[in-house]
Design goal:
This protein is mainly α. Among the domains are: 111 residues, 3-Layer(bba) Sandwich (GroEL), CATH 3.50.7.10; 89 residues, GroEL-like equatorial domain (GROEL, domain 1, Orthogonal Bundle). Helix content is 54%, strand content 10%. The strands form four sheets. It has a two-stranded parallel sheet with strand order 1-2. A two-stranded antiparallel ribbon has the order 3-4. A hairpin with a 6-residue loop joins strand 6 and strand 7. Helix 6 runs antiparallel to helix 7 and helix 7 crosses helix 8. The longest helix has 31 residues. The model has no long low-confidence stretch (mean pLDDT 88).
Length: 288
């Protein structure tokens, strides 16, 4: 709290107590004036703000926010590079306090969103996504979408990007299909299944856009083979074969990798279960 040190009311009944109270008030005033002298533009407080402090800071044109949650205080400190201090920390000399200050390009009140925005912090890069809607259910859905988008952006920065729109899966399908002639028996059938599975995301995307998946599948695979470009797929607005990089249709490489690995692990688990059941059936007596 940006307030003077707590003082018991009973002590005001004595002359010494009154003198101590006035001394604490004067010390607090000097501490607040230190904030003004440092050129501070924004003060965040977790609890209340004393009327004297609010008057001094407001007259100096300093924005003061009180009742700010600890979570928000920590985020603001990380963004600006500031360090949070307790009330007694204001007793330090101005030079020491200056080293605790954070910096940002701008801090202002967004009247439309009813939020205070801090932009261009000199500390850790951070961003806040404000999600709102008419009902609680829609807010929950939008929040889920925002979290998915943030996770996708994080994965893209960490592992890079691949063309979206099903292009990369079709390119993988073509590569896997080349190994078909080198194997026989059930292994060849497994490759056929994998090739068909890799074509499904593209077919579903095209179908959702209202086009014939079989027709567009042939067009794209032929175009990829002819032009030797794995980034070709269908522009769902026009139905034409386009480069997904040029359209900005991209997917995080890590998301694709983990999705393929998860699908293969599930398929392996199902195949193992089926094999175990067959072995038990062979071992059972005929009368059972």
């Amino acid at each position: 709290a940006l307030e003077p040190e707590e003082f018991e009311e009973e002590a005001l009944a004595t002359e010494t107590g009154v003198a101590r109270y006035l001394a604490l008030r004067e010390e607090f005033k000097q501490n607040v004036e230190k904030i003004v002298s440092l050129g501070v533009n924004l003060v965040l407080v977790d609890r209340g703000v004393d009327d004297l402090a609010e008057e001094i800071l407001t007259e100096a044109g300093i924005m003061v926010l009180h009742r700010v949650s600890f979570k928000e205080l920590r985020k603001a400190a990380e963004l600006t590079g500031a360090r949070m201090i307790k009330r007694t920390g204001l007793k330090r000399n101005p030079a020491d306090l200056a080293r605790l200050l954070g910096q940002a390009d701008r801090a202002f009140e967004d009247e439309r969103l009813e939020q205070v925005r801090i932009l261009g912090g000199r500390g850790k890069p951070l961003a806040t996504i404000v999600v709102g809607a008419a009902t609680k259910e829609i807010v929950g859905e939008r929040e889920r979408m925002a979290k998915d988008a943030a996770a996708a952006a994080q994965a893209a920065l960490k592992g890079g990007l691949v063309p979206g729109g099903g292009a990369i899966e079709l390119a993988l399908a073509s590569e896997v299909a080349r190994a078909r002639s080198e194997v026989r028996g059930m292994a060849a059938y497994g490759i056929d299944c994998l090739v068909e599975a890799l074509k499904r995301p593209f077919s579903q995307i095209v179908s959702n856009a209202g086009f014939n998946p079989l027709e567009k599948l042939g067009d794209v695979m032929a175009a990829q083979a002819e032009k030797q470009r794995d980034s070709l797929a269908i522009d769902c607005d026009t139905g034409e074969v386009r480069d997904m990089f040029e359209l900005g249709v991209l997917d995080p490489a890590l998301v694709k990798f983990y999705a393929l690995r998860a699908a293969v692990e599930v398929a392996e688990a199902i195949l193992r279960i089926d094999t175990i059941i067959k072995k038990r059936e062979k071992a059972m007596p005929e009368n059972n």
